[in-house]
Every structure is written in structure tokens, then in C-alpha cells.
# Entry
Amino acid sequence: MVKTFYTKENKPFPNSPLPVLYYPKVVANLIIEPDPAQSVLDLFEKNGYTNGWVNGIFSYHHFHSNTHEVLACIAGEATVQLGGPDTQSYSFSEGDVLLLPAGVAHKRVAASQDFKIVGAYPEGLEPDMQNGGAEDYEAIKQAIMSVQLPKKDPIEEANGSVANLWV
# Structure
């Protein structure tokens, strides 16, 4: 069952009117595979999310103004703050997936030493890195609003939560 988290504009972080989609333990079965990172990357690629990578989440607030981002935790756990400073933090652990709309600030607040995630982008877009220091805030907000909705959900394919909740 997908859960939603809403973020509000929190200058200099635009965030998004679209909710963050949280899929608890949805890839838990892939973590026990011999190569969990590749198994998750394969799932994302099957659903149109490519340009994947394996790493962690930065320890500073940042967002992408040109693409949405899917993150799957394949090891350990972390506390992740969504929406910029003075906002709520969420637990993110093995098997969990987050789909972040373009513009949503995110930051790793704390993590276990073994914390590792897989990330990817709809249509393999190359994400820009925004840290809230852009000179033209309104232009960044316009760019975020022009980002196309993904054709598929990263987990539930064409008729998933993206089609139902990101309208």
C-alpha cells in the first residue's frame, strides 16, 4: 500500500503540489537476490526509470528542478527529511521506495553505516542539482511545473499510483 507525504513551498525550496509516494517494503524480495542493486535497477528500467546509480542520499538539502527521482533502499536505514529545513523527517529502510516529485527537497539526517540506495529517473533524464541557492527562484518553480509526469509508476507500471495520485 502506497503512502503519500505532502510538502509545502519552503523558500528557497519550491517543493511540489504532487505528493511524495512511499512504498514500504515493496522491493524487500529483491534485496535477497545475489545482486540486489542490479535487481532493483532492472525493475526500474522495466518501468522506464533509467540513468540509475547506487550510493546514498546527500547530507544537505537538495532537489532536482528538471526530473522526478525514485529511490530504493537496498541496505541499512536512514532518517530522511523531506521539504527542506524545519520539516518532518521519515524513516527509510531496506525494501522501501520513495518517488520524489521534481522540486522536493530531500536530505539524509542520519543513517546506519551500511545504508545504500538505488536511484533512477523517468526516461533516464540527467538530474540537475539545486541546493536552494538559485538566483531566479520563480524560473526554478516554472521549470518544476513543466516537468512531464512519468509514463509509468516505478513499481506498479502503467496503472499504478503515479496514474492515480499524480493528476
